[in-house]
Amino acid sequence: MPIFNRARRSLVLASISAALLVTAATGAAAARLKIEGLDVVTHHGVRHFTVEVADTEASRDRGLMFRKSLEAARGMLFDFHTPQPVAFWMKNTLIPLDLLFIDADGRVISIARNAVPLSEAQIPSGGDIVEVLELRGGRAAEIGVETGDLVRPRIARH
């Protein structure tokens, strides 16, 4: 019986260690992203956001996966650098998100509202975009974002 307990204890400790490593890696990855301010200009006014910028393939692949919450004035901006059609999914994303697909002029060309957590369904951009802004699910409706609205950086990125 003691050998079984020792083996079980080792397995539990290994599982806890693995979970801590994943948590640390998630935090470290988020800590390496640039943080910028941006404004969303709607017919209701200007809303200020602080966003993490995912501008590499690795950071775009990771996105907001495994996050358990997102503050109202926070988000993630995916920068693709050149206009192109894209599609997103919610695999490993634990919270609902609104996705604003933004063209080269900074205009919102489409919005995916309340994307379903953990879904592997494709969410297409609906045209060539340069950036995608992810906000907490429902936030786009709260601030009145519509297609044609403007998303602009507070400091020039390009």
Can you describe this structure?
With 158 residues, this protein is of the alpha+beta class. The protein folds into two domains: 1-32; 34-153, Sandwich (Jelly Rolls), CATH 2.60.120.1140. The protein is built from three helices and nine strands; from the N terminus they run αββαββββββαβ. It has helices spanning 2-32, 57-62, 139-143; strands at 34-42, 45-54, 74-84, 87-88, 97-102, 108-115, 123-124, 129-136, 150-153. The strands form two sheets. Strands 6-5-8-3-2-1-9 form a seven-stranded mixed beta sheet. The chain has a two-stranded antiparallel sheet with strand order 4-7. The model is unreliable at 1-5 and 10-30 (pLDDT under 50).
Question: What are the key terms here?
Answer:
single chain, 158 residues, alpha+beta, 2 domains, seven-stranded mixed β-sheet, two-stranded antiparallel ribbon, 9 strands, disordered N terminus
Short characterization:
The chain has 158 residues and is of the alpha+beta class.
Number of helices: 3
CATH level-two architecture of the largest domain: Sandwich
- Approximate helicity band: 25-40%
What's the average pLDDT?
Answer: 85
Secondary-structure element order, N to C = HEEHEEEEEEHE
What structural class should be given to the helix and strand makeup?
alpha+beta
Strand order of the largest sheet: 6-5-8-3-2-1-9
Shape: globular
Uncertain spans, ≥5 residues at pLDDT below 50? 1-5, 10-30
Assembly type of the chains comes to single chain
CATH topology heading of the largest domain? Jelly Rolls
Instruction: State the fourth-level CATH superfamily of the largest domain.
Output: Protein of unknown function DUF192
Beta-strand proportion: 35-45%
What is the CATH first-level class name of the largest domain?
A: Mainly Beta
Structural domains: how many: 2
- Please tally the β strands and state the result: 9
| Biggest sheet statistics | 7 strands, mixed
Give the distance, in angstroms, between the N- and C-terminal Cα atoms: 65 Å
C-alpha-based Rg, rounded: 19 Å
